[in-house]
TrEMBL record:
Presence of keyword Transferase: no
GO cellular component: cytosol
This protein's name: Fructose-1,6-bisphosphatase class 1
Entries under NCBIfam families matching the protein: PRK09293.2-4 (NF006783)
Subcellular location: Cytoplasm
Pathway: Carbohydrate biosynthesis; Calvin cycle
Protein source organism: Geoalkalibacter ferrihydriticus DSM 17813
Co-factor requirement: Mg(2+)
Domain Fructose-1-6-bisphosphatase class 1 C-terminal: 187-310
Length: 314
């Protein structure tokens, strides 16, 4: 049962660092998570005041980078390099692993500003982070020791898990992240769906599955931002997000290391499920840093039903 913060309750004035300390989390892991939380303050400022134009460069997927992508990447990278506890860094905005300190206990991969193309139409965007022990960032998602995201919306919120539940914090007037929800749990099935990708390129199995959701009265909630769309399902405890295999993109669009693994970790920690339609996202062994995969993620029964349609119809 998700614990929700009654206004003024002392338990829920706990800030992020104290929550990690009370969870007796490893000090170096606490350092990484708190450094990322601190970096978000500079990213917020960049979003609000920064140049929304193109940076004149492209990322490892060949996509044009926005100045905000490059700036957000630089902010996070600098904080990780100076943290003193990070071995390697991998960003969606760069094309190779950055070796920081062979003695660093953790390695971090991040999408510094996912959905950045939505900023110029004033929609919510986010930072997505995945953390592994050691220096290997091509491990399966099952080996993550922590995952988190920061959502830059009407409010700035932070969601993290280190394997002992999923917890939400919101930024207060002092730009501190204070606990708002603890041990978030998804219902077995939901009533909203977020269908990514072009519907006319869905395979028969996905098309039949989505039609079955609509016949059951599921409401469509899709913003084009992975972080706000997942956050809505997580906090409402209800629904499924899909960016499936498409006729012209059998691997879908979303990135395994930077987007799918961290969200799959968080959703499974909240009692949900994350699948390619045929296997668990967290069991995929990445072959390269730019791997993509189809995804059906959210309430367990909703994902299992999707898997049944994909198994039967493709
Ligand atoms: P950008 O980071 O290029 O804006 O893409 C955002 C994203 O990776 C993810 O946040 C969304 O869920 C997905 O793409 C939306 O893709 P479509 O625009 O094809 O629906």
């Amino acid at each position: 049962m998700t614990a929700i913060s009654p206004p003024g309750s002392t338990k829920f004035q706990i800030d992020l660092r104290r929550h990690l300390r009370e969870e007796e989390e490893d000090r170096d892991l606490t350092r990484v998570i708190c450094e990322i939380a601190d970096a978000s303050k500079y990213i917020i400022n960049a979003i609000r005041t920064g140049d929304l134009g193109l940076a004149g460069t492209s990322n490892l997927y060949g996509e044009n980078q926005l100045a905000l992508d490059v700036l957000s990447d630089r902010i996070l990278r600098k904080r990780m390099i100076h943290s003193g506890v990070v071995a390697n860094i991998l960003s969606e905005e760069t094309s190779e692993v950055i070796e920081v300190d062979p003695g660093g206990k953790y390695s971090v991969a991040f999408d510094p500003l996912d959905g950045s193309s939505l900023v110029d139409v004033n929609l919510a965007v986010g930072t997505i982070v995945t953390i592994y022990e050691g220096s290997d960032l091509l491990q399966s998602g099952r080996n993550q020791v922590a995952a988190m995201y920061i959502l830059y919306g009407p409010r700035t919120s932070l969601v993290y898990s280190t394997g002992r539940g999923v917890h939400e914090f919101c930024m207060n007037q002092l730009m501190e992240f204070t606990l708002t929800k603890e041990n978030i749990q998804l219902q077995p099935s939901g009533n909203i769906y977020a269908p990514g990708g072009q519907r006319n390129l869905y395979t028969e199995g996905t098309e039949k599955y989505v039609s079955s959701l609509e016949e059951k009265g599921y409401k469509l909630r899709y913003s084009g931002g992975f972080v706000p769309d997942i956050n809505q399902i997580l906090l409402k405890g209800s629904g499924i997000f899909l960016y499936p295999h498409l006729r012209d993109k059998p691997k879908g669009k979303l990135r395994l290391i930077f987007e799918l693994n961290p969200m799959a970790y968080l959703i499974e920690q909240a009692g949900g499920k994350a699948s390619t339609g045929r296997q668990s996202i967290l069991d995929i062994k990445p072959e390269s840093i730019d791997d993509c995969a189809p995804i059906f993620i959210g309430c367990r029964e909703d994902v299992e039903r999707a898997e049944e349609y994909i198994a039967r119809y493709g």
